[in-house]
Amino acid sequence: LPGRKVLIVYAHQEPKSLNGSLKSVAVEELSKQGCSVTVSDLYAMQFEPRATRNDIVGCLHNSEMFNYGVETREAYKRRELSSDLLEEQKKVQEADLLIFQFPLYWFSMPAIMKGWMDRVLVEGFAYQFPDCYNSGLLKNKLALFSFTTGGSQETYTKGGISGDIRYLLWPMQHGIMHFCGVKVLAPHICFAPEYVSEEERKEMLLAWAQRLKTLWKEEPIDCSPEWYFK
Amino acid sequence: LPGRKVLIVYAHQEPKSLNGSLKSVAVEELSKQGCSVTVSDLYAMQFEPRATRNDIVGCLHNSEMFNYGVETREAYKRRELSSDLLEEQKKVQEADLLIFQFPLYWFSMPAIMKGWMDRVLVEGFAYQFPDCYNSGLLKNKLALFSFTTGGSQETYTKGGISGDIRYLLWPMQHGIMHFCGVKVLAPHICFAPEYVSEEERKEMLLAWAQRLKTLWKEEPIDCSPEWYFK
Question: What is the tens place of the pLDDT at every residue in A43-74?
């Protein structure tokens, strides 16, 4: 939609990978719609995933006993978070839609992207007790997890060895995005692209481009236990 | 048990934290039993969480198109993984029990520990298709997730806002440890230590020490969907 802002948080080492192509397809299609698209290319940025004292500029609130949650909350108030975090927060603040594009690593996102969640979504910025879940501070934004898997779709079913794919979406969609008040669109999953033909990988890219054409008309999922575990 | 080897993978920035104390209690109690205990103190080691080309020493299998899974699998065969990974793999190989000690960050482990999983548990070392889950290469080992939460126990129940705590254990216990063939002991969870009295925190440490006394007699959980979602 013209005027809409999209942030793509992207975690793949190889631009020529399917993840790289999925990211490019999204930039292209959404730009064509008139959206303004920003990409945080985490590996290219050498984004820091470790939550440490370096995230706070200047003095600590309590230098006797380092508590990352407390220190980043206080540093956020004082505008004393490290500049890489402030930049990411600015991108999030401006975005109407966050797309997370990554290969599934161990039933979750790669560590570099988990580090983005751990460090960027600071208390006071993304949530503020009791303002979490439906009243989280990032309400009125949308998020979409777009990822590739190693295993096939059959393994990720209720009777399959890896269980329903929705089981592993719970921490990411509910525990992170919903917690911050963000509404979650259905995930976009490309199963086992390494084991399909070049032709099928092209179809995966086309399907993503196609979905993006009508993305703004989609309703968020009902991000409750029923969606995940029934 | 005398002679048993334990690896504690520990992720907290502050030695004086409850996580730091829980780690120390485990070292002390298990050593007293005659176990040989090794600690990987991830923040102190400045452990690298990012999965990159730097993990492969020397030439790539395919330098045209970087695929982290393929490259680390091939580098493992050639003994050309970076030395920090080889060291961690040696510790895992020797261990009878892996204890993961961390504060829960966003329904999961901190990025620095996720990076340990992403980088250390290489194909060929931890699993080798079709040898995964019950036939994973790390079978005959045990794992235990020991962590602290921000939220109270009531929030982590079926009717609670954050859902049953077991839901978020699925990716870590089943998706990672069980996938590698490791048997999983019941998690050890200290709920909301920041919101209880000093006295109650001491009781948490005592309870952990107490549990460790009979840990080797425990039966692993049945790491199947029923345990997590029924």
Answer: 999 999 999 999 999 999 999 999 999 999 99
Contacts of residue A64 in chain B, CB cutoff 8 Å? 16
Ramachandran angles phi, psi of A94, nearest 5°: -80, -20
User: B138-185 pLDDT, tens per residue?
Assistant: 999 999 999 999 999 999 999 999 999 999 999 999 999 999 999 999
Over chain B, what is the mean pLDDT? 97
Give residues with Cβ within 8 angstroms of A95, minimum separation 6. A5, A6, A7, A38, A141
Residue A176, SS3?
helix
Domains of chain A: 5-229 (3.40.50.360)
Residue A2 has pLDDT above 90, yes or no: no
> CB distance A13–B167 less than 8 Å?
no
**B227 touching A, CB under 8 A?**
no
Asked whether the beta carbons of residue A114 and residue B114 sit closer than 8 angstroms, the reply is yes
CA dihedral A45, A46, A51, A55 (to 10 degrees): -60
Touching check for A131 and chain B: CB below 8 Å?
Answer: no
